[in-house]
Design goal:
The complex is a heterodimer. In chain A, helix 5 crosses helix 13 and helix 11 packs antiparallel against helix 13. Chain A is mainly α. In chain A, about 75% of the residues lie in helices and about 0% in strands. Chain B has a domain of about 150 residues: Rossmann fold (3-Layer(aba) Sandwich), CATH 3.40.50. Chain B starts with a helix and ends with a helix. The chains are: A mainly alpha, B alpha/beta. Chains A and B meet through helix 10 and helix 11 of A and helix 4 of B.
């Protein structure tokens, strides 16, 4: 029978007893990690981290000055939180750093976008300007910090300059890449419609390039934070970076930890703002912060 | 039958020539490739003509020259009495890809050529007309959705509306349905015929599907490569309106054979 009907064996019962096994031949196996909700997995990992931390502390192998206990750190986090909420000196410091981040991000977007359009849209920009940008971009930009401090002093200006300097390049690259991203069909279509160069730029190339632009913005949003804090470490002032530096110099390690945690909230807020703006503006492309775009 | 004779034949008695190409040649100097060699072509009003040939035979180059996207090396291209020296608003074009922009709704995509030409206010005032066009192609309910909700066939139908919204004198079609599945393509071809007959449109189609060329055209130009030239103009004398079941008729088969014999001889050397 199986020789005359070669395909029948897989779909129909082969003699007696086939019905019982047919259901269990091959069923989907859901792996353990797929069955655990993300929140549980994340909480579990955090708990494991705390446990290792606590054990290291209890073992006495590491000095408490270098690594304070989790409880001590938690107490300090609450103390700093209270200080911030009551509008004490730490809030003033956080506001200084926040201002630096806002100013430098705005400046970086302005300069980065303009340079990006120049480089991405004009032959002059691509041939003459781009090589210099690439050359500067490969330099360690933090090394310029002493120069900015010498030129602009110990106030907020030198920090803004450094943060802007760091954050501008990813935006230039993102903007220029975005302008090159429009496909050949779209370009041809705009040519057949007799569109001017400005119309092609505004109505087609810039909207097509928005996803690339936002990729640049995300990198830049991390860059402004690094620039502002580095500027404060090296140039003093009244910001959050200065608080961290002072705490570290006094070997107040719990304070350093808790300040970093509150500082990371500022970074998260900046990054989140970019993601929010992207979801509003690039509404046709559904993408998440983590993971690949869907749909 | 020579090319010249076919051109005169399709010209009929009093039909107005819309397109007139005289001895159009194109050489790509950098690679020293002669893409087109002395192509003559006359399209009269209301004619549906196709050019068929293997990939790289120069048919896309020809279409780009006709559209004013590329100058010919020698020869002249006259559309509606004026030489083509660049993209023209009386030319409607369609490509293999629909290329709808995802940040515009379907209807905003359709009126885009108007917005480019006359500004946003003019585009808005064309919305009613654009809706009529969308209704014509069965997209009435999709006017206000974004293109990522449209299927491939629906997107191409929207692209047809975008091409027609400027009321062009001539339609240049560059393999417009070749990215669609075969069932959708057959349906779209019938839609295209309906639209062209309703508007007495003059159309020029580039394709590499013999059946598609025959079912749609009044005349099919067979193009052979290196250098690209018309080997023959085959007049398609099937009655209009054409229907999909005509593909089974002996006459259809004879026309397809005739075209294929030219392609076999010249194209795959």
């Amino acid at each position: 029978m199986s020789q005359t009907q070669p395909f029948s064996g897989q779909t129909t019962a082969q003699g007696h007893g086939a019905d019982e096994v047919a259901d269990t031949v091959w069923t989907e196996q859901v792996s353990l990690i797929d069955r655990i909700p993300r929140s549980v997995a994340m909480t579990g990992l955090f708990a494991a981290f705390l446990a290792i931390w606590q054990l290291t502390h209890l073992s006495g192998l590491v000095s408490p000055i270098i690594l304070p206990s989790p409880a001590e750190t938690a107490r300090d986090i609450l103390f700093v939180g209270n200080n911030l909420l009551t509008g004490d000196y730490m809030l003033a410091a956080l506001w200084v750093t926040t201002k630096e981040v806002i100013y430098s991000f705005a400046l970086a977007i302005l300069i980065g976008f303009s340079l990006g359009v120049l480089v991405g849209e004009t032959v002059f920009g691509e041939r003459a300007v781009m090589p210099y940008l690439v050359a500067i971009d490969t330099m360690p930009k933090i090394a310029f910090a002493p120069l900015f401090i010498a030129w602009l002093g110990f106030g907020i200006a030198s920090k803004v300059a450094l943060a802007t300097f760091i954050a501008t390049f990813p935006i230039v690259v993102g903007t220029a890449a975005g302008l090159h991203a429009a496909d050949e069909n779209a370009r041809m279509l705009f040519r057949t419609m007799g569109a001017s160069r400005l119309q092609t730029l505004v109505k087609m190339k810039l909207p097509s390039g928005l996803p690339h632009f936002f990729t640049g913005l995300k990198i830049a949003s991390v860059g402004v934070m690094a620039g502002a804090i580095t500027g404060e470490f090296l140039g003093g002032g009244k910001g959050f970076g200065e608080l961290i530096r002072v705490a570290a110099s006094q070997l107040d390690t719990p304070r350093v930890f808790s300040l970093i945690i509150y500082l990371s909230l500022l970074g998260l807020a900046t990054f989140g703002l970019v993601v929010w703006a992207q979801q509003r503006l690039v509404f046709w492309q559904k993408s998440s912060v983590v993971g690949e775009p869907s749909g | 039958m020579t090319v010249e004779m076919a051109a005169e034949l399709t010209a009929g008695h009093d039909a107005r020539p819309v397109y007139r190409l005289r001895r159009v040649s194109k050489t790509f100097a950098r690679r020293n490739i002669q893409a087109l060699d002395s192509v003559d072509l006359t399209l009269t009003e209301g004619t549906f003509a196709s050019v068929i040939g293997a990939s790289g035979c120069g048919k896309s180059t020809l279409l780009k020259i006709m559209a004013g996207l590329m100058p010919p090396s020698t020869g002249s291209v006259i559309l509606a009495g004026r030489p083509v020296t660049g993209p023209r608003q009386d030319i409607g074009m369609m490509f293999q890809q629909a290329t709808l922009f995802p940040w515009r709704t379907t209807i905003e995509n359709v009126v885009l050529p108007i917005e480019i030409r006359d500004g946003k206010a003019a585009a808005r005032s064309k919305h009613a007309q654009a809706r009529t066009l969308l209704e014509l192609v069965g997209l009435k309910d999709f006017a206000d959705v974004f293109p990522n909700e449209l299927s491939g066939g629906m997107a191409q139908r929207a692209a047809i509306c975008r091409m027609l919204v400027t009321e062009p004198a001539v339609l240049l079609l560059d393999e417009p349905f070749s990215a669609l599945d075969e069932l959708t393509r057959d349906y779209m071809n019938m839609e295209l015929q309906k639209i062209c007959m309703q508007r007495n449109a003059t159309a020029f189609l580039v394709t590499h599907s013999i059946a598609e060329a025959v079912i749609l055209s009044d005349v099919v130009y067979v193009m052979t490569p290196r250098p690209g030239r018309f080997a023959e103009a085959v007049t398609i004398d099937l009655p209009r309106p054409r229907t999909l079941d005509m593909v089974t008729t002996p006459r259809f088969g004879a026309l397809v054979d005739r075209i294929r014999s030219h392609l076999d001889r010249g194209s795959f050397l």
